[in-house]
Amino acid sequence: MIIGVPTEIKAQEYRVALLPSGVQQLVADGHRVLVEKGAGNGSGYSDAEYIAAGATMVDAHADVFAAADLIVKVKEPIEIEYPLLRRGQVIFTYLHLAADKPLTEAMLASGCTGIAYETVLRNGKLPLLEPMSEIAGRMASMVGAVNLSKNNSGMGKLLGGIPGVLPANVMVIGGGTAGVNAARIAAGMGADVTILEVDVERMRHLDMVMPRNCKTLFSNRANIEALLPDTDLLIGAVLVPGAKAPKLVTRDMLKLMRQGSVIVDIAIDQGGCIETSHATTHQNPTYVVDGITHYCVANMPGAYARTSTQGLTNVTFGYLRKLANLGIEGALKADASLVPGVNIMDGKLTFKAVAEALDLPFTPLAA
């Protein structure tokens, strides 16, 4: 099989989808691996390392797509890549289709197969999403703390306070991987943290394992509204796998927050869980609505590209190797966890939550 690794061209995206060590293994398995020149530079992996591993280096972005049977990426194809997609080709990457109807329609029209990292499901967990959720969660408290500073339009409050001065109050909506990592870092910095969650068993677990300055509270509108007046940093970390994120904080609710408070919406890849959220980039990460700073970068882990690339490829490579060695049909039969990852196949939308979010026809994946 010919496997293609294009350079990521989304704004400020420095990750790469395959390490030189992965190239070496795939070549040993008998595959040809095409790597676009410079694809690994942003993560600290040189063309020379890929060449030494057995990769064939390609000058043009379009040539990678034209030749490869299986494209492995980090982020979803962007508009200028839509014409490069073709029938019979497999795209293995983060897709986040529920928040992107133009991409969904382009992929359907192309006839390609789209396997989304974020909906691969094993034992009730999302193994290809978790490492990036860990990074985004940890980053959320870091960037939130920075944006609380006065020179960044914040209220000028130090997250952890000092002796004699109370710390900031942090509300984390969602007790999954991203939310827990955000809460752990915020608590470690000395903030007073509350995690809102709907799963009572999950809250019992968090109550036992999280630091004592981190509390849990059942997530509903009344409790969110009760906390907002005292919240300095709000972190939205709600995830409905493959579906559009629910809007849990409305525009009207912003007036309950103090001027200079900060919102970090980790769920922005799936449309965001704050009504006033819209995707931003690392170059222009924030904007202000009603005196509240919003940080809504859609590829947060891209800022720490080397760590993110290593964490991502640790979990994606095993699946990539199965797809390469067994083909799409063989891989789906051999590993059932890949089945929910298939969002699009042969011009049909095969993931129900995406179809419902975009009001498009749903076709179950054939057994």
Structural commentary:
Helices cover 33% and strands 17% of the residues. The protein folds into two domains: 2-111 and 304-358, NAD(P)-binding Rossmann-like Domain (Rossmann fold, 3-Layer(aba) Sandwich); 130-298, Rossmann fold. The two termini are 24 Å apart. The chain is built from eleven helices and 15 strands. The chain is α/β, with parallel strands linked by helices and 367 residues long. It is globular and about 65 Å long. It has helices at 20-28, 47-53, 61-67, 101-110, 130-147, 177-188, 200-209, 221-227, 251-254, 305-334, 352-358; strands at 2-5, 32-36, 56-58, 70-72, 90-93, 113-116, 169-173, 192-197, 214-218, 233-236, 262-265, 286-289, 292-295, 342-345, 348-349. The relative contact order is 0.15.
Structural descriptors:
Rossmann fold, 7-stranded mixed beta sheet, 367 residues, 2 domains, 8-stranded mixed beta sheet, alpha/beta, 33% helix, globular, single chain
List the SSEs and their pairings.
Elements: E1 2-5, H1 20-28, E2 32-36, H2 47-53, E3 56-58, H3 61-67, E4 70-72, E5 90-93, H4 101-110, E6 113-116, H5 130-147, E7 169-173, H6 177-188, E8 192-197, H7 200-209, E9 214-218, H8 221-227, E10 233-236, H9 251-254, E11 262-265, E12 286-289, E13 292-295, H10 305-334, E14 342-345, E15 348-349, H11 352-358
Parallel strand pairs: 1-2, 1-4, 2-3, 4-5, 5-6, 7-8, 7-10, 8-9, 10-11, 11-13
Antiparallel strand pairs: 6-14, 12-13, 14-15
Helix pairs in contact: 1-2, 5-6
